[in-house]
């Protein structure tokens, strides 16, 4: 007999707007490992600080246009004139501190690669935990973790800003470093990196 389709169970925030629902069903928790992708998510999580995620999501394409596709090498050369231009850009969140932090974070990510041979993506992913949470309800989803505290500390040491442990944990959830989908959610395990019970999934054997 054919299996019945799995019930669509989502986090409560994902049902507050169709854009959030689409984001939850197609993107949130899926692995992002490229440098521009990780830098974009880190930047957007910083802009979200003190605001709602839907506010950022609605402005996402404008952010991408304003920040040169979040390519760190392109953003790193922004000068004061670019900052002033961005402060006049009605499509984004016009916060001087957050704009300047994004530019400086791009420069810091370049320095990181020059100094260590590895970029922001490698650093962030190196803090992947051995186990992921197994939340039954929204109230069970943590807002930080030991790894997010450690990563936030290291990012700050390297010179990044707007990278507190809560912001960093939101990033880790968004790009699949942890899986905080509810145990009953149809998206649990969607990244392919985690088993539903929170243990790491063994990689598929490749060709010999």
Automatic annotation (TrEMBL):
Keywords: Membrane, Transmembrane, Transmembrane helix
TM ranges: 159-178
Biased composition range(s): Basic and acidic residues: 198-208
Superkingdom, taxonomy of origin: Bacteria
Record-linked InterPro entries: Adenine_glyco, DNA-3mA_glycosylase, DNA_glycosylase
Region feature Disordered, mapped onto this chain: 129-149, 189-208
Keyword field contains Magnesium: no
Gene3D superfamilies in UniProt: Hypothetical protein, domain 2
Name of this protein: DNA-3-methyladenine glycosylase I
């Amino acid at each position: 007999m054919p299996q019945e389709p799995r019930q669509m169970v989502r986090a409560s925030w994902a049902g507050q707007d169709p854009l959030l629902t689409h984001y939850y069903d197609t993107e949130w928790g899926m692995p992002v490992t490229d440098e521009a992708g990780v830098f974009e998510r880190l930047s957007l999580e910083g802009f979200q600080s003190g605001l709602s995620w839907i506010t950022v999501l609605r402005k996402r394409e404008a952010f991408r246009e304003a920040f040169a596709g979040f390519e760190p090498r392109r953003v790193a050369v922004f000068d004061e004139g670019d900052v002033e231009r961005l402060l006049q850009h009605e499509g984004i969140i016009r916060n001087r501190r957050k704009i300047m932090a994004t530019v400086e974070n791009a420069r810091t990510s370049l320095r990181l690669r020059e100094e260590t041979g590895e970029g922001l993506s490698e650093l962030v992913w190196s803090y992947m935990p051995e186990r992921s949470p197994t939340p039954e309800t929204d109230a069970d989803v943590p807002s930080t973790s030991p790894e997010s505290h450690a990563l936030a500390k290291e990012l700050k040491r390297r010179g990044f800003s707007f990278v507190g442990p809560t912001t960093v944990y939101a990033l880790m959830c968004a790009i699949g470093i942890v899986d905080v989908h509810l145990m009953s959610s149809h998206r649990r395990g969607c990244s392919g990196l985690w088993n539903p019970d929170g243990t790491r999934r063994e990689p598929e054997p490749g060709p010999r």
